[in-house]
Design goal:
The chain is α+β, with helices and mostly antiparallel strands. The protein has one domain: Winged helix-like DNA-binding domain superfamily/Winged helix DNA-binding domain (Arc Repressor Mutant, subunit A, Orthogonal Bundle), CATH 1.10.10.10. The chain contains 3 helices and 5 strands. The protein has a 3-stranded antiparallel β-sheet with strand order 2-4-3. It has a two-stranded antiparallel sheet with strand order 1-5. Helix 1 packs across helix 3.
């Protein structure tokens, strides 16, 4: 990848060391949702690593699974199946015995702040944002 001075381009979620991160519409929407609601439920089936999010019907279950996997790989969210939400009506997740939650990471919070500074969120579209070097 161009711009990779340090890592050779194989870092999780790497877009090159040039400080640019490309986000799809669904990824931006999920990050902005997490900015409003810090912890969201997630589940999975026994023996399956695919995360399932059922709280929003704007996209398919498969789309949300892909969004969560991409955001986690990029280090923007953390999915933890040992921390299910307490006091949460999880009846929609009855078919998924392994339940947990997900939240923004520190890097994810930085990206949300940059999205807000750049005015992204009023109209969501695939975009590139400049991210802080770690």
């Amino acid at each position: 990848m161009s711009g990779c001075d340090h890592c050779g381009g194989d870092c999780a979620g790497c877009s090159g060391c040039g400080g640019v991160l490309e986000l799809a519409e669904g990824e931006i929407a999920m990050l902005l949702t997490l900015a409003q609601i810090p912890f969201l439920p997630v589940a999975r089936k026994m023996g399956d690593d695919v995360p399932v999010y059922l709280e929003d019907r704007e996209r398919s279950v498969e789309s949300y699974s892909l969004i969560l996997q991409c955001l986690e790989k990029r280090g923007l969210i953390s999915i933890d199946y040992s921390l299910p939400l307490k006091g949460f009506d999880d009846s929609a997740y009855a078919d998924y015995p392994i339940r947990g939650s997900f939240a923004l990471t520190q890097r994810g919070q930085q990206v949300v702040e940059l999205l807000e500074m750049q005015g992204i969120g009023q109209k969501i579209f695939p975009t590139r944002i400049f991210v802080l070097d770690e």
